[in-house]
Design brief:
The protein is α+β, with helices and mostly antiparallel strands. The chain has three domains: 165 residues, Jelly Rolls (Sandwich), CATH 2.60.120.10; 39 residues; 71 residues, Homeodomain-like (Arc Repressor Mutant, subunit A, Orthogonal Bundle), CATH 1.10.10. It is built from twelve helices and eleven strands. The strands form three sheets. Strands 2-9-4-7-10-11 form a six-stranded antiparallel beta sheet. A three-stranded antiparallel beta sheet has the order 6-5-8, with no helix packed on it. A hairpin with a 2-residue loop joins strand 5 and strand 6. The N and C termini lie far apart (39 Å). The C terminus is likely disordered.
């Protein structure tokens, strides 16, 4: 089963994404992304999948996943049950680390861990417990405080007992080959140029296929057409922007993600999410209020 590409939104003026989500949630599927991820489970238990590794998770589980490594966490809860905050996540790009290494030599100690995370790393329970309060603070931190908390977390990861490596080496090598060519490569290019007018012919050329053959391959891989998939990617990105910045205007998000007019954006959002962008943001804000009251 081919993993879906997840769009990671890192806000302007910030070095990395730090956010939380509940369960069920749109990212709870077999997926991958080019960014590194530090993933802390704070509620529910169930099974998790990292590459070709299958394991059991519970609150306090701390995992670090490298670029393009497929992953999923599925909570074992009764049907209809909603957990408002299941996971806390930090996501950052390779370019962020490269830039940090250029100006902060101390970050070199983080590099071996980053390299090993390409197969997924499971940390011990004590490290998870130490990092939990820092992650919780980071979710709402702003400015320099975000960087300070990130550095504290990195320091704990670097000094932690040797983590368990999850995916097999063969799986990592096979994924590396798969990401370079074919539909996954086309989707990665589409993601990097999501707000640009990328045509089906352009993507077909990148895969060495005719437009008609590419169209058939794309639909087999994703279950939908390129136009619909591009709209789904843009709406997914809009959802993350709506939740990560409560002050940004819906109209600004609309144009930032590549829609040419607000009514078209609202129509696609309603079709895919069953509610308007404003209602979507309000629903998750209400979930947070319920969580804090509890």
């Amino acid at each position: 089963m081919q993993p879906d590409l997840e769009l990671v939104h890192i806000r302007k003026g910030e070095s990395f994404a730090a956010w939380h989500h509940g369960y069920p949630f749109r990212t709870v599927r077999w997926h991958y992304h080019p960014e590194y991820e530090i993933h802390l489970v704070v509620a529910t238990s169930g099974r998790f999948y990292i590459g070709d590794h299958i394991g059991h998770f519970a609150p306090g589980q701390l995992v670090m996943v490298g670029p393009n490594l497929p992953q999923n966490w599925i909570s074992n809860v009764p049907a209809g049950t909603i957990s408002p905050r299941r996971s806390q996540v930090i996501q950052f790009a390779e370019s962020f680390i490269d830039s940090a290494l250029d100006v902060i030599p101390e970050f070199q100690a983080f590099r071996p861990l980053l390299d090993r995370s390409r197969r997924g790393l499971l940390f011990d329970a004590e490290t998870g417990a130490q990092i939990t309060p820092l992650m919780t603070q980071l979710m709402d931190a702003r400015g320099v405080r975000r960087i300070a908390l990130f550095c504290e977390i990195v320091d704990l990861l670097v000094r932690a007992p040797e983590p368990q490596i999850l995916a097999s080496l063969n799986f990592q090598l096979n994924m590396g080959k798969a990401d370079e060519t074919g539909i996954n490569g086309a989707i990665a290019y589409l993601r990097e140029n999501l707000t640009a007018p990328v045509s089906e012919s352009e993507l077909a050329d990148r895969t060495g296929q005719s437009p008609s053959a590419f169209s058939r391959s794309f639909k087999r891989h994703t279950g939908t057409t390129l136009v619909r998939y591009k709209n789904e990617l843009r709406i997914d990105l809009a959802c993350q922007m709506l939740l990560s910045d409560p002050d940004v205007r819906v109209a600004d998000i609309c144009y930032d993600i590549g829609f040419s007019n607000l009514s078209n954006f609202n129509r696609h959002f309603l079709k895919l999410k069953g509610m308007s962008p404003t209602q979507f943001r309000a629903t998750f804000a209400a979930n947070d209020l319920v969580r804090m009251a509890g």
